[in-house]
Write a structure and sequence with these properties.
The chain has 146 residues and is mostly beta strands. Helix content is 14%, strand content 45%. The chain has one helix and ten strands, in the order H-E-E-E-E-E-E-E-E-E-E. The strands form three sheets. Strands 4, 5, 6, 8 and 10 form a five-stranded mixed β-sheet that branches. It has a three-stranded antiparallel β-sheet with strand order 2-3-7, with no helix packed on it. Strand 5 and strand 6 form a beta hairpin.
Length: 146
Amino acid sequence: MLRRVFCISMLAAAPLIVICACLPQIKQVEALPAQLFVTIPSHHPQPDLRVSSIYNAADGWRLRIEVENFVFTDLCVSDAKDLARGHAHVHLGDIKLATAYQPDVVLGHLPTGRHQVTVSLRAQDHRVLGRHGGGIFAATVTIDAL
């Protein structure tokens, strides 16, 4: 039984393993794969984002995502036509914490220690927004939780 569960788990994880193995090459390719990325053409205004964090005792940690040339929306569509509209994914290390449909995100209380929180922009069809020539639109903030 355990062997069967392991085999099923490995089959389910295979696509994710392949994607993760390819991530280091993303910065080195001319064009990103359209199934995973929406590439913003170089002649379009390029999104820019900055992330900051603040702590308060009641809510814990909050993120503020400041963007230029990008509009947050909670409307998801199957084919992203408006390149500069969508949402953001918030990751704590390798763990997805939240989907941000607005610039303010409550993370809550974090365990004691230093944490890297990364925010990446997504199109309305959930694909990652990619830069012309490689790379993605993302920003990272370090949180020192006490």
